[in-house]
Amino acid sequence: MARNVTQQRKIINTAAAWAVGLLIFFPILWTILTSFKTEAQAIADPPIFLGFDWTLENYQAVLERSNYSRFLWNSIIIAGGSTILGIIIAVPAAWSMAFVPSKRTKDILLWMLSTKMLPAVGVLYPIYLLFISLGILDSKIGLVIVLMLINLPIIVWMLYTYFKEIPGEILEAARMDGASLKDEVLYVLTPMAIPGIASTMLLNVILAWNEAFWTLNLTAAKAAPLTAFIASYSSPEGLFYAKLSAASTMAIAPILILGWFSQKQLVSGLTFGAVK
Amino acid sequence: MGQIRLNKVSKRFGEVEVIPPLDLTIEDGEFTVFVGPSGCGKSTLLRLIAGLEDITSGHIEIDGADATNVPPAKRGLAMVFQSYALYPHMSVRKNIAFPMRMAGVPADEQARRIEAAAKALNLTDYLDRRPGQLSGGQRQRVAIGRAIVREPSAFLFDEPLSNLDAALRVGMRMEISELHKKLATTMIYVTHDQVEAMTMADRIVVLRAGFIEQVGSPLELYHKPCNEFVAGFIGSPKMNLIKGAEAAKHGVATIGIRPEHLDVSSSEGAWKATVGIAEHLGSDTFLHIHGVEGCDPMTARVDGELPVKHGDTIYLTPQLDKLHKFDAQGLRVD
Fold this sequence. Notes:
Distance between the termini of chain A: 32 Å
Strand content of chain B: 25-35%
Number of helices of chain A: 14
Structural class of chain B: alpha+beta
Number of strands of chain A: 2
Order of helices and strands of chain A: HHHHHHHHHHHHEEHH
Strand content of chain A: under 5%
Strand order of the largest sheet of chain B: 6-7-8-3-9-10
Oligomer: heterodimer
Strand order of the largest sheet of chain A: 1-2
Order of helices and strands of chain B: EEEHEEEHHHEHEHEEHHEHEEEEEEEE
Radius of gyration of chain A: 23 Å
Largest interface: A-B, 18 and 26 residues
Number of helices of chain B: 9
Largest sheet of chain A: 2 strands, antiparallel
Helix content of chain A: over 70%
């Protein structure tokens, strides 16, 4: 009897999880499907789910019209660059908060996170003007810096949570063994925190890859990443849903593949410290 | 060389004075044990010597040089932690090599010292394993190996055996004592276990609430405890402290008699009492006795062959030459 109840509950849970999963994934699935339709089929009413003539013409058109590889390259540089820069800055910050906390460490952490609650548009003007006067508008370096700053609170917060799990005695042992602060961070702390650092980096790459507000507002042609590539297909001449979908699919494909292969790492990273 | 001198050293955490100013000299080559109940400041004192905590006032000298503001890495001391504190991502070999790597010791010399340490500590077969694949005792030996290869001027042990089971603890206790005999290096050892203190130490420092209560050899502390606290803390089972009329007969506030210094008879003696619990250890029997005025229960250590059981009436007589006397402040009266 009890077994039946647990079995039933298991089935219900599994079904519910699949339903939520499909619901979340549906827009992506629909985009991918639409990218293989003709423009006419894409706007057909009622919508066609699978019974359409599969075509690659949208991809051809998109590749002819835009320089996909340049956008891709910009996205890689911006997402990768901001992540690496962020980690370099966040590791020492998280180290000091985790291992030499002061009375105000918790406040600082909360304050850092609170900056994420600020609507980005609120600081668009000052940053835009700053970019003009520094001459870094529409440059990759400018975007690397901005996206690094945007995501830094999350990186510091995540690393802090990881570092908190590392026993302080191990770092003290390193100090007793003659390690300088640099040696301690480089040879003991960082290797021990590799799983945490990896999942933090992964999450940050995803966030930076998908970031649209700053990338659209601060770039024009030279530094435009894949977000701008997608946006360029919602044009005043009218919406070409199939081509827009093809562009979107091409833009999200690299990060989707990266996410798929590293999902185990990502999940363990996000739930780290939650179960112990 | 490894003389350590503490000069008016004190430590405050905010408003709380954990260690009031104290002076202490640990001689070169000495095995010193800091012992006391938990929260007495013994670990803090060790961490002050290590440099892992900053002292609030005073000076620390190591080998005659002022080390007060020297970072832990440069003090030339090695420490073994209660949690072993091994580097989990490194093999045993790399763990032991780490301090030498930090000191820039040449690779061939590193290999030689690792081999020697591994041989001395029975770790040769485990050099390529990770700490996670070792038992508690083996891990603690790796931690000791890591300390030895530094060739430090003194070893600091912070309750190194507390995480081991009882049988292993006795074995490791001997190994550490043997190591001290072989290396003849200064060792400071923190424990709350007075048996460890008695068996290992050349000199014991008894601490309570940051104050040094008494410093002396194990037998000095056993035979001449300077106050009631030390009398009660050193020795197992604990000394019986008797107050009231019995103490007044000797003209003091408290008298103390160790369980092994009570003569037990079934027919006559100074105090008539009833046996509560008899703990038969084989070689000895510990009797927990009720009915002696001013000390209830009293403990007596008697021969294991003595036929006593719960509820028996017995007579106790203290060996007068082994009696300890304390005044109203708890200080020893001779």
